Amino acid sequence: MSTSTTKAAPAEDLVGRWRIGLWLSYGLIVLGIAVQVFWLSPQSWPGSLNDPVRFLFDSHDIGVFFRSSAWAVGGGTLYRDVPSEYPLAANLIFGAIRFLASLVTEPDRHLWGFTLIWILCGLSVLAGCLRLASQESCDGVSLIWLLPGVVYFAALRFDIYPAFALLLAMAALRRQRLLRSAGWLGVAIALKGFALFLVPCMAMYVLHLAGIRKALIFSVVCLVPYAAMTLITLLFSGLDGLLSSYLFHAKRSFNGESLWDGFYLRFLVRWFPGLPAFLTIGFSIGAAWLRPRSFDRLIDACLVAVVGFTVSTVFYSPQFCLWILAIASFSERQRILLAAYGVCLVTYFYFPVAFDIVWNGGSRIPLRIAVTTVTLLRLLLIVTAARPPAATLRWAEPPSG
């Protein structure tokens, strides 16, 4: 048996199991919707579970984006009259969609128009992610982008935009197009600031690849969009406006779904309030300390930085799976891809399913199981990525060009 045949066999077997998991998860969703609609009346749910599980649609975050975009239709100055927890780059997306909605709908229908356009835009960006993943990744990895949790949060959350920018940055860096990669990473940072934690390990890789001068240029270019947006915000909203979104995130506390909640470690944060920030920075520095000298090892380092951020903060958001997948899609390590698949698969059953059961008075056990499973899978990702691989499983030839 040839070497190529030996490598292809487990890949085909694993992709087949992924495909089964994909169809099974959608089958369970259809079953859940059918039970909710045709069998169970609101009064028959366990406990006081009177509201439906949001299997297909969740308006909460879209409502936040809509309110943040009032400035685009004459509702006042952003951060002064229009509060927002998001940076300027994100609000430019919100504002563009709000303005477009105002052109095609009546004033009392702006929210409906905004929602429809938002979902269409999110799914369009997801299609771009899927296309890029099919070109850049091992065979079958694009299936992960079709899992229910990925589609759900791509359509109904904001993180698909910085995740796509990160995908483009990694694809460009793989081809050693340093300035293009730095530019796209800069877009990701401007859209969601915690992408900053990727800069040290990526700069370390560029240092090995092209020398200290190119590494410094790469780092500076990464920061230009973020710095420009910060300066613009300061000029039109003042210092208070600039700090408002940062203060919102600085005040965020336990949400019952983080590592600290899942493993009953809140007492450590009470004793050492700076521990989450210390660990977040530590994971970023640790990722750079891996000193990646190959693109495969860079993917490992980036996973340490990003997943490290998601496990060290006092809150966890289910849409973080998009960030994890954006990096893991480039990996050729079977355990990393399995863990990423697991995170994206379980995330949907953690939110909205288990979360809504608890929210409406049902048992907390499903949510506890889902949160613990997602946390363990993220810890597995960090441990696996931090260790040098014994071997990689190449399921497709790296792209040329």
TrEMBL record:
<keyword id="KW-0472">Membrane</keyword>
<keyword id="KW-0812">Transmembrane</keyword>
<feature type="transmembrane region" description="Helical">
    <location>
        <begin position="268"/>
        <end position="290"/>
    </location>
</feature>
<feature type="transmembrane region" description="Helical">
    <location>
        <begin position="367"/>
        <end position="386"/>
    </location>
</feature>
<feature type="transmembrane region" description="Helical">
    <location>
        <begin position="302"/>
        <end position="330"/>
    </location>
</feature>
<protein>
    <submittedName>
        <fullName>Uncharacterized protein</fullName>
    </submittedName>
</protein>
<feature type="transmembrane region" description="Helical">
    <location>
        <begin position="111"/>
        <end position="133"/>
    </location>
</feature>
<keyword id="KW-1133">Transmembrane helix</keyword>
<feature type="transmembrane region" description="Helical">
    <location>
        <begin position="86"/>
        <end position="105"/>
    </location>
</feature>
<feature type="transmembrane region" description="Helical">
    <location>
        <begin position="145"/>
        <end position="172"/>
    </location>
</feature>
<feature type="transmembrane region" description="Helical">
    <location>
        <begin position="215"/>
        <end position="248"/>
    </location>
</feature>
<feature type="transmembrane region" description="Helical">
    <location>
        <begin position="184"/>
        <end position="208"/>
    </location>
</feature>
<feature type="transmembrane region" description="Helical">
    <location>
        <begin position="20"/>
        <end position="42"/>
    </location>
</feature>
<feature type="transmembrane region" description="Helical">
    <location>
        <begin position="336"/>
        <end position="355"/>
    </location>
</feature>
